């Protein structure tokens, strides 16, 4: 099972320069002279600071399509959002945290991994041993020379 490690968030602004020119994922166009602006990553990743925490993924159950969340990735998790089917959530099962996609299937809700080598979990069998702690809103993955590490 993929688990998560909860990390402390420092809520001071972290300003980085954002290029206003979009970067196409298709055929590149010549760069225009769009101005650069500054963006605060805390504002972007943590819009609800009192309800958001960062976690580090430990495991491979979410490294498949469509999320491709690798082992070691950082995730911003917002506990003020109401989980909906299709959301990636951090849940507690028997007091252990895990990250999975929440799906509604006949009979109830399931926690479904994106990696087919892992099994889905029928939450109706867990009773009060299951609780959703928040919805994943952003994923930060480390790349090494343009490749996942």
Task: Chart the SSEs and their pairings.
Elements: E1 3-7, E2 15-19, E3 36-40, H1 41-45, E4 52-58, E5 74-78, E6 88-93, E7 96-105, E8 108-112, E9 121-122, E10 130-140, E11 143-144, E12 147-148
Antiparallel strand pairs: 1-4, 2-3, 4-5, 5-10, 6-7, 6-10, 7-8, 8-9, 11-12
Report a brief summary of the structure.
It contains 1 helix and 12 strands.
Proportion of strand residues: 35-45%
Largest sheet properties: 8 strands, antiparallel
- Please tally the β strands and state the result: 12
Low-confidence stretches: none
Helix fraction, binned, reads: under 10%
| Physical arrangement of strands within the biggest beta sheet | 1-4-5-10-6-7-8-9
Please count the helical segments.
Answer: 1
Secondary-structure-based class equals mainly beta
CA-atom Rg in angstroms: 18 Å
Shape: globular
Q: Calculate the mean pLDDT score and round it.
A: 82
Could you state the order of secondary-structure elements as H and E? EEEHEEEEEEEEE
Query: What is the first-to-last residue Cα distance?
Result: 20 Å
Using brief descriptors, characterize the structure shown.
149 residues; mainly beta; two-stranded antiparallel sheet; 12 strands; 3% helix; globular
Describe it for me?
- With 149 residues, this protein is mostly beta strands.
- Helices cover 3% and strands 44% of the residues.
- It contains 1 helix and 12 strands.
- It has one helix at 41-45; strands spanning 3-7, 15-19, 36-40, 52-58, 74-78, 88-93, 96-105, 108-112, 121-122, 130-140, 143-144, 147-148.
- Strand 7 (96-105) and strand 8 form a beta hairpin.
- The protein is globular and about 55 Å long.
- The relative contact order is 0.21.
